[in-house]
Specification:
The strands form seven sheets. A six-stranded mixed β-sheet has the order 21-1-2-3-4-35, with no helix packed on it. Strands 13, 14, 15, 16, 17 and 18 form a six-stranded mixed β-sheet that branches. The protein has helices spanning about 5-10, 15-25, and strands spanning about 40-55, 55-65, 75-80, 85-95, 105-110, 115-125, 130-140, 145-150, 160-170, 175-185, 190-200, 205-210, 210-215, 220-230, 235-240, 255-265, 270, 275-280, 285-290, 300-305, 320, 330-335, 335-340, 350-355, 360-370, 375-380, 385-395, 400-405, 415-420, 430-435, 435-440, 445-450, 460-465, 470-475, 480. β3 (about 75-80) and β4 form a beta hairpin. The two termini are about 25 Å apart. It contains two helices and 35 strands. The protein is mainly beta. It folds into two domains: about 5-335, 5 Propeller (Tachylectin-2, Chain A); about 345-480, Exo-inulinase, domain 1 (Jelly Rolls, Sandwich). The longest helix has 10 residues, at about 15-25.
Length: about 475
């Protein structure tokens, strides 16, 4: 694995020509996605600035142009009219101010008063590399590019650690107030959320207090990417706790969880109805963001990074890594969140393939599951050996996914086997495969499992139990992987 110097990681991109050769090289990779948003070069991580505005869906992602390394971060911009077909728009935000001299870190967007606003963390470091995180804002200009405000909205609080980032902006109509949730860490290394409020988006922001989440006063060492949304009469709080191990997550210390409950804005108290649950049970799912201005009280749209902080993936050898999940529709059913693929994704079906045990590099599988235990093995060799295995235990209603038998193994020390427990018996699986990722939806979204995979040329087969019936379609490309900087 390449060792990057600080100077290499934090180099400022001066011209698109500096990375055109890198784009040409990685475009030849067999692991480039065809219907998932992915980095034009280098690394993509957290989704940012996800909002619907004047008929267009805007999405940004954290981007380091030089390679598969966390260094100087930009916001890269993509747009869509239907959340299925995506177009590269180029750099959205770049680190060119005092207050963000070492990166435009994660944030959100909101459409209001006929304008699209962006809120992000300006990562400033001084000559001694001491970090100061500023909460900054920008507004979409007439040319389709964000224009930064001349000054940050506010700086960090000294009574919390330097980890204050990922502003999520939203409006509460009942209070007639805008709020920003910021992921934070207390001085005694306790994960938490800081709350700011203002009657106006462009000015007047004041600190309202720390969010009180009953029962979660000491849960994780940092809460990244907090989101809150009201869905079907309930408040849903989503966040990514770090620096902690949680049950059923092997050795990982980075997670994505949610709580359903009620939010009291007078006391800044969130009261959960039940224990936290995992947003996705897979190996590679993080920093999920809810879309602003989705326009439906019964559901919203969610997208996440296929990847985890501190993890490493085989495409690092090719100087790129990461992609976004499919956008998913998020609803509440029986007191739990359910996630289903974005409506209309079926339009990408090219042709139905024979269920003959051969996988296409970009395809959709639908599997009907009968009674009893069940096995599905993906990316096996022609003789049915190896691959990524899914075993369902009917007695415990648990799917166990094991990717240790793939030829290209990675993140072995973090864990290669994870469970996806179900409330109901397994009756169906809907699976989306795209060159280097797998997204599994069980029982119409009751549970999901997202993973990177890097099958070799000999690993494009599958086997299924006798009590499983398979339909499979090849899927056409829907993301324009153009060199737009």
């Amino acid at each position: 694995m390449r060792e990057w110097t600080k100077e290499e990681r934090y180099r400022v991109l001066q011209s698109p020509e500096e990375i055109r050769g890198l784009f040409d090289k990685i475009s030849k990779s067999v692991y480039r996605q065809t219907y998932h948003v992915q980095p034009v070069t280098g690394l993509s991580s957290d989704p940012n600035g996800f909002a619907f505005h004047k008929g267009i869906w805007h999405l940004f992602y954290q981007w380091c142009p030089w390679g598969a390394v966390h260094g100087l971060k930009y916001w890269y911009h993509v747009t869509s009219k239907d959340l299925i077909h995506w177009k590269n728009e180029g750099i959205g935000l770049k680190p060119d101010c005092y207050y963000d001299n070492k990166g435009n870190h994660s944030g959100s967007a909101i459409s209001a008063d006929d304008e699209l606003y962006f809120f992000y963390t300006g990562n400033h470091r001084d000559e001694n590399w001491v970090r100061t995180p500023y909460t900054c804002a920008a507004k979409l200009g007439e040319d389709g590019k964000p224009v930064k405000f001349s000054r940050p909205l506010f700086g960090p609080r000294g009574d919390y650690s330097e980890h204050q980032r990922d502003p999520k902006v939203f409006y509460n109509a009942q209070k007639k107030m805008y709020y920003i949730f910021i992921g934070a860490q207390s001085l005694d290394k306790r994960g938490c959320v800081l709350v700011y409020q203002s009657e106006k988006l462009e000015e007047g922001w004041s600190f309202a207090g720390e969010l009180k989440v009953l029962g979660y006063e000491n849960f994780g060492g940092m809460w990244e990417c907090p989101c809150i949304e009201r869905i079907d009469g309930k408040d849903v709080l989503i966040f990514s706790p770090q620096y902690t191990k949680l049950p059923g997550r092997s050795e990982s210390t980075n997670h994505n969880v949610y709580l359903i409950g009620s939010m009291d804005y007078d006391t800044l108290t969130f009261t959960p109805e039940s224990d936290y649950r995992y947003l996705d049970f897979g190996f590679d799912f993080y920093a999920a963001q809810l879309a602003a201005n989705a326009g439906n009280q019964d559901k919203t749209i969610i997208i996440a990074w296929i990847g985890l902080p501190d993890n490493h993936y085989p495409t690092e050898e090719e100087d790129w890594e990461g992609s976004m999940t499919l956008p998913r529709e998020l609803r509440i059913r029986d007191g739990r969140l359910v996630q289903t693929p974005i409506t209309g994704i079926e339009s990408l079906r090219e042709q139905e393939l024979l269920a003959d045990g051969i996988l296409d590099a970009a395809c959709e599988m639908q599997v009907s599951v009968g009674d009893g235990d069940f096995d599905l093995n993906l990316f096996t060799t022609a003789d049915g050996n190896g691959g990524m295995t899914l075993h369902y235990d009917a007695k415990t209603k648990t799917c166990t996914v094991d990717r240790s038998k793939l030829a290209k193994r990675f993140n072995e020390s973090v864990g290669e086997v994870l469970d996806m427990p179900l409330e109901n018996k397994l009756t169906s699986l809907r699976i989306f495969i795209d060159h280097s990722s797998v997204e599994i939806f069980a029982n119409d979204g009751e549970a999901t499992f997202t993973s990177h995979v890097y099958p070799t040329e000999n690993e494009h087969n599958y086997t299924v139990s006798d009590n499983g019936a398979v339909k499979i379609w090849s899927l056409r490309a829907s993301v324009k992987d153009d060199f737009v900087i």
